[in-house]
Amino acid sequence: MRHPQSLADAAILTIFLLPSLTAAVGNIDCNHVRVDGIGFTFKELGGPRSAQHSFDRGQSFLNTTYTIDICRPLKKSSGSDPKAKCPSFTRLCAVERFVSKDGTTDVIQDAYPVAGELKTNGGGDMNAKWSRLKGSISHEDSKKEGLLLEIHGGYKKTDTEKKRRQRAVIEFLCDREKTGLENLPEPKDTYDKGKEKRAEDAPEEETDLTPSLTFDSYDTEGDEDTLRLEWRTKWACEDSKKQQDEANRSHWGFFTCAFLSTAAYLIFGSWLNYNRYGARGWDLLPHGDAIRDVPYLLRDWIRRVVNTIQGGGSRGGYAAV
C-alpha cells in the first residue's frame, strides 16, 4: 500500500475517508439521513428539544426533563445551574427535580447523560443506528411510517456509585400536520441554542396542545436502562426530503433560467453587432452605451444620496451678509 507522500495526498485521502470514519463512530448527520435508499432531513429539528415526565411520590413530584439535540452535542448556556450539567459531547441529557406539591420546594436531584460520544467522559460510544419502521420485524412498527433512532453512550450512577449504562430509542413518526416543534416545553435548565431554529418559531395557533416530542417509557430491566421517546413530525415522512429538494430546485431553476436568458441575449446581440456592423469592444454589447454609463450613473446617485443626508441637518433661512 502506498503511503501519502505529501500534505496534499493526506488531505485528499482524508476527504474520501471522512464519511466512512463518521459512520464508523456512529455520529449523526441530521441533514442527510439515508435508510433503505430513502433520504430524510431533520435539520429543522436541530437545537435543544425537551420532553418531560412527572412521577407522583406522595408529598412531591419527581419531574424529569429529557433534552436532546440530534444535530450537535448539547451545550449549557452561561448562568445555568452546574448541578444540572451533563458531560461534554452529551446528545441527550436527563435532569431530575423534586418539586413539592405546594410549590415551595424545587430541588435538583440528579443530572446524567443518556446518550452521546462519552467514551472520554466516563461513558461509551454513541453508536447511532437508524432503522425504518416499515421495514421493522415488529408487526406493530411495520404499520407505521417513520424512523427509529437508537443511541448509546450514557450512564447513570446508582446509590452505590456504580454506573448503569443508558440508551435512548427515539421513534420519529410521520405526521404531515406537525413540524415537530409544537408545544415543546422550555426547561428551567437552559441550553445554548446557537443558530438553530427555536421552538417558539413553530405555529402559535394550536388547537391540539400535545407536544410533538413526548416521553414514552423508561425501562430499568436488564443491564442497560432504556429511555423511549416519540417525536411526531412531517420530516419523518418518507417523501418529505424529496419534496423539499424539488422545491429548492424550482427556486434555483428560476435564477438559472434568468441567468441563461440574459447570457443568451448578450451573446446573440454581440454576435449580431459584430457581423452586421463590425463592432469592437464595448460596441459589441447590445445597448453598450447604456451599460457603459452604469458606473457613472451609480456614482451620481450615491453622490446625490450623500448630499441629501448631509444637507438634511442644515438650518433653513438666508445666510448673513
- CATH first level of the largest domain: which class? Mainly Beta
* Mean pLDDT over all positions: 80
Low-confidence stretches: 10-25, 198-203, 314-321
Order of helices and strands: HEEEEEEEEEEEHH
CATH architecture of the largest domain: Distorted Sandwich
Question: What can you see in these coordinates?
Answer:
It contains 3 helices and 11 strands, in the order H-E-E-E-E-E-E-E-E-E-E-E-H-H. The chain has about 325 residues and is of the alpha+beta class. The protein folds into 2 domains: about 15-240, Mannose-6-phosphate receptor binding domain (Cation-dependent Mannose-6-phosphate Receptor, Chain A, Distorted Sandwich); about 245-310, no CATH class. The chain has a 5-stranded mixed sheet, with no helix packed on it. The longest helix has about 40 residues, at about 240-275. The termini are far apart. Residues about 10-25, about 200-205 and about 315-320 have low confidence and may be disordered.
